[in-house]
User: Which sequence fits this backbone?
């Protein structure tokens, strides 16, 4: 049984009471004692139990039980009346006059009476006011798009929130739940249409300025990725200006720099990648101007192979079998496939190998 209004008012008038608000009991020394007395009393004059919080609504003056000590209003209507000064948002005659007779939008009515639009939308739907929005699946009409959307989802089990758009490639009309000002608002039907739009001269990546921008971004991302994987700064070679992954690569970089071969280091960003099954691979060094095939030079230590043995074998086997390149490996005797293998301690012999591949006389920079 709920507390009577008389009991609530008695509690509100004296929160630290020592007298029972329902009877003449006043033998307790504290409000806690009174609450114990009240809870043990078994008669109709002591209904329910005494609440921890009691408050008086600042708008209508009603005394109510509260869940905390900061409550001020007994209802949403009282709060709206106190803050806004009107309950027109739920006045059916007023809404009909504004929306159906004067042709105003619900959002404009909300703005005029200074309440949130969703408050007006709620009562417009409740009273079934307006006919600007027709349900695509039945004869019902609504004053707001929110109303027809909610109706369609509740009654027909399908959401119609969103927008239609025309595919920029095939011209088909599609639907999306996103708003038009959403940065992810679609332009194409699917990945196939997007891919076809990128073919030939339509490909924006063929623009030289865009290619330069992409190249700079890839160089930066590659450098940051290498640093993250290693957990340390790259090793700088002052002779070449290259930032390398290891001391072994730095020494091979120096050997190639002192030769008369034009080479590229893939850590520099000016790189070429090779398709290997379901991924691509960027080797360490490439020489591609002395023979028809690319000469790829990889520097592989035993630790790298140990932690990535499966992938290293897949790369080595694939590149060794290809006819458009020559695969040279420098490092430990790790058992990986290659066209030429040089132990790291014999790394100075690299130029002899390249001379042999290119058909040149022995390079005179080293005494082998």
Assistant:
């Amino acid at each position: 049984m709920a507390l009577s209004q008389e009991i609530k008012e008695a509690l509100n008038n004296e929160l630290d009471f020592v007298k029972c608000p329902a009877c003449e009991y006043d033998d307790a020394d504290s409000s806690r004692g009174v609450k114990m007395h009240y809870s043990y009393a078994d008669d109709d004059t002591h209904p329910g139990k005494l609440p921890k919080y009691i408050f008086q609504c600042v708008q209508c003056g009603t005394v109510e039980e509260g869940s905390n000590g900061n409550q001020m209003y007994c209802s949403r209507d009282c709060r709206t009346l106190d803050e806004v000064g009107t309950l027109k948002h739920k006045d059916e005659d007023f809404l009909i006059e504004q929306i159906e007779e004067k042709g105003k939008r619900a959002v404009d009515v909300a703005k005029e009476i200074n309440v949130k639009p969703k408050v007006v939308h709620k009562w417009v739907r409740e009273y079934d006011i307006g006919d600007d929005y027709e349900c695509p699946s039945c004869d019902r009409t609504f004053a707001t798009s929110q109303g027809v959307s909610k109706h369609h989802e509740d009654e027909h089990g399908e959401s119609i929130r969103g927008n239609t758009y025309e595919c920029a490639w095939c011209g088909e009309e599609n639907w999306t739940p996103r708003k038009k000002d959403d940065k992810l608002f679609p332009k194409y039907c699917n990945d196939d249409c997007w891919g076809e739009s990128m073919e030939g001269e339509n490909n924006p990546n063929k623009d030289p300025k865009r290619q330069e921008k992409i190249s700079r971004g890839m160089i930066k991302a590659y450098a940051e990725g290498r640093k993250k994987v290693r957990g340390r700064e790259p090793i700088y070679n002052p002779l070449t200006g290259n930032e390398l992954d290891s001391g072994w690569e730095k020494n091979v970089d120096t050997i190639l720099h002192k030769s008369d071969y034009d080479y590229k280091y893939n850590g520099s960003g000016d790189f070429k990648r090779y398709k290997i099954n379901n991924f691509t691979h960027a080797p360490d060094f490439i020489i591609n101007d002395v023979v028809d095939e690319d000469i790829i030079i990889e520097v592989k230590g035993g630790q790298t192979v140990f932690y990535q043995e499966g992938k290293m074998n897949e790369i080595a086997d694939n590149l060794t079998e290809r006819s458009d390149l020559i695969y040279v490996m420098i490092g430990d005797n790790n058992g990986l496939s290659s066209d030429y293998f040089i132990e790291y301690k014999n790394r100075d012999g690299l130029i002899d190998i390249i001379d042999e591949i290119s058909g040149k006389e022995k390079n005179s920079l080293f005494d082998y």
User: Anything to note?
Assistant: DSSP finds 13 helices and 15 strands in the chain. The radius of gyration is 40 Å. Residues 233-358 form a domain with the Trna Endonuclease; Chain: A, domain 1 fold (CATH 3.40.1350). Residues 362-368 have pLDDT under 50 and may be disordered.
